[in-house]
């Protein structure tokens, strides 16, 4: 009887020890927030950022990963509405914003931007059988300085809210806009394209590469000849986070010098 009790005690002791080891082994180490680079994006913007097979992919995603690697950090991506990126970076919720984002005077009031890493073009998508051959056809005529004098009746432009396509299109005709009343904003570029297909808008103005992706994925659409606007893409960072901005710019310079950025862009945008 005593021998049985002794054996039982030993077994119980071993169970406790093994349980302790298991508990210790299964315990997650706390994340070192200083080693995590949080990037805000809007993953509906192929080929710069989109979701494929449940994973974030695209030009911006790969460049961001390369930057994080240069900084000895792990990239964490947060997919949010495009219009929430600037405010989130400004408040410190995100370390940086990267979403095919153009530097504008208005945005510079809230955040700082890195050096440019890619060039974007604003293009115009219309129905394949559209009567319009260029975006200049949307205007009634031109003044002595060759600026638009007005917008033709019935012209409605679809845009993704808060993008530069939205900013430019919403300006007055004299500055090659179409006026607030003639611009309809959508949450995503895909929503704007669906509005075009259903006849709710005359055209969609969006960055050229996403425009090509939308046209390829939807029958009955085409891109008008000519560039509505030409712009540079950059990464936004909170104004007080100058150390991170300097580190990002240094990493970008190295990635441009060794051909990494060019290789990534060519992977998604073949020559």
Describe this structure in words.
The strands form 4 sheets. Strands 8, 11, 12, 13, 14 and 15 form a 6-stranded mixed beta sheet that branches. Helix 2 (59-70) crosses helix 8 (242-257) and helix 2 (59-70) packs antiparallel against helix 9 (260-268). This protein has helices at residues 2-26, 59-70, 85-91, 105-108, 164-169, 189-197, 208-217, 242-257, 260-268; strands at 36-41, 44-45, 49-52, 55-57, 74-79, 96-97, 111-113, 118-127, 139-142, 148-151, 157-160, 183-186, 203-207, 221-223, 229-233, 236-238. By secondary structure, it is of the alpha/beta class. It has 2 domains: 33-117 and 234-268, 3-Layer(aba) Sandwich (D-Maltodextrin-Binding Protein, domain 2), CATH 3.40.190; 120-230, Periplasmic binding protein-like II (D-Maltodextrin-Binding Protein, domain 2), CATH 3.40.190.10. 36% of the residues lie in helices and 25% in strands. It is built from 9 helices and 16 strands. Residues 1-27 have low confidence and may be disordered.
